[in-house]
Amino acid sequence: MRRNLAIVPAFNEVDAIASTVAAIHAAAPDFDVLVVDDGSDDATAARASQAGAEVLRMPFNLGIGGAMQGGYIYALEHGYDVAVQVDGDGQHDPRHIHELLDRLRSDQDLNMVTGSRFIERDGDGYRSSPARRVGIRVFSSTVSAITRQRVTDPTSGFRMTNRRGIELFARDYPHDYPEVEAILLMHAHRLRSCEIPVRMRPRVTGESAISSSQSVYYMVKVLLAVFVGLFRRRPALEGAKRPPAFTEKGA
Amino acid sequence: MTDVSLQRGIAVAGTLALLLFVFELVRRKHLSERYAILWLLAAVTLFVLAGWKGLLTSLSHDVGISYPPSALFAVAIGLIVVLLMYFSLVVSRLTDQNKILAQRIALLQNRIEKAEQLGAVEPEERELFDEELSRSR
User: Residue B103: which of A55, A244, A246 has the nearest Cβ?
Assistant: First the structure.
């Protein structure tokens, strides 16, 4: 049985999803593909299924955090050892998956490897709006300061975790805009992560999950979560048998 | 009738109406006891403050509020803030639980479809499930 899973969150990605799944199968045949359809109202789930992916269909739109966590619970329950997130819109080039895997396997103590757009600056690298770059820089320096480790691309969703990372994310994963918080979550649980350089492609179709009008909310929400998270007690990962997300006791 | 006693009459009537309204909602099971307790506490507090002749005046005098009805408003606003905060907590918890339910449904549906492909679930059962799902949307 194959033990590697590619989790592909998708919301109304009917035009891109089949080629994304096919590209993952082609570039990383040792990975099973799970498309998490986050309440799409188009044929995303059907196309993904036709393309040979397993599909989790959320009954309504949960947001990227809830959808990704669903994928991690799937990975946990089906006994996968490695899970990689690949966006459904074709931004993440599946040819980097094995670079992530090699890096993850190269060090036993490493729990997560993120593909970063900003380690190497070259002419045809990733382009984004100036405002977004400023935002990424703010997050980058904040996260670097907290983890005492250089983190160049904290908003990258192209990342691979081992079994311990899967266990952690299946149990606890941030709600919306989860990438930045997920790094700090790893850090708080004393799991180790690092980055390798990747190139990301411009989107094939669809719209970014974060429109410019939402980016202010994004900044504020993430910075608040980061700040509050510094004061949160983290239970030890070992032996903890909690439900997959936070619920109040006796609720 | 003086101004002050008219004000008191209105305040007493208003808070009494609130009390009775909450009671009636609980009696008809529209409002569960769990959430009614806070509302009843709020209503009783306001009722006592409105009805007990010297209490509000002396309380407001003690804290330096020259116009006693303002003290009533202050207390009412405080109670409303507590209630709203409580509801925010409840909504947050419901959102979390809702998310977990959605994830479980998606995982179960995936398992059912897998089982069908392996012939472990009869197609008729599947149709019933689909109908059920589309009706719930």
Answer: A244
